[in-house]
Amino acid sequence: MKGQLLCFLLLAVAACSKDDPAAGLPAATHTGANTAGCRINGQVFVASGYGSGLSKVEGMGGGFAYDSAYYLRLNGKFGDREGSLHLFLNSVPRKTSLPLRKVYPLNQNTPVMPAAGPNQCKNYAVFFPNDNRQELYCTDNVHTGKVEVTHADLTPNQLVAAGTFEFTAVSNLDPAKTLTVTEGRFDRKQ
After folding, report:
1. Between vectors from CA 115 to CA 86 and to CA 132, what angle results, nearest 5°?
2. Which of 159, 163, 155 is nearest to 187 (CA)?
């Protein structure tokens, strides 16, 4: 009887871990672990980089910049596609003692960097697929989302920000094409 109960418990634990909705994504931490990931159209996308040798692209970059912005770049793969996901938050005070725990809506039409300077950009999320260098998917006033900064440490030589994100973005080449990003999380130390 004890053996049957043990087998049942082991099977139940295995089934739970297989059905875990966050399976394959990095843990949602706030320690400066330099990890990030999300689901793009249901497929796992982790900031792990891509390529090799001299053409190797690092998994994550960005952070506090321009004294009023937070910029995050995640490079990785989902399915058999490579790409780069960028989050840009304007009006994020870097030199303040105020808590930065805040929700930043992604709900306005805006130019994106590098086509525009940081002072011209509003909050946005954009995804650049590597298989079509002309196409990008960006949030706007119809295709919206949010970034929530859940932790920020502005201690000198620390600069850690962590949070969650989700959004829907539309193709610049075909307004009928969208992608959906869910379960996003990041934990970045500069």
Report:
1. 60
2. 163
CA atoms of 167 and 170, how far apart (whole Å): 10
Instruction: Give pTM, 2 decimals.
Output: 0.84
At which residue do the structure tokens 């075909």 appear?
174
For the cut 80, the answer to whether the pLDDT of residue 26 exceeds it is yes
Beta partners for 86?
Answer: 73, 126
φ/ψ (deg, to 5) at 85: -110, 130
3-state secondary structure 97-111: CCCCCEEEEECCCCC
Phi-psi region of 63 (alpha: psi -120 to 50; beta: other; left: phi over 0): left
Length of the chain counted residue by residue: 190
Tokens at residue 80, please?
């058999």
Task: Give Cα separations from 3 to 10, 11, 12, 15, 190 (angstroms).
Answer: 11, 12, 14, 18, 51
Residues 51 and 188: their CA atoms lie apart, in Å, by: 22
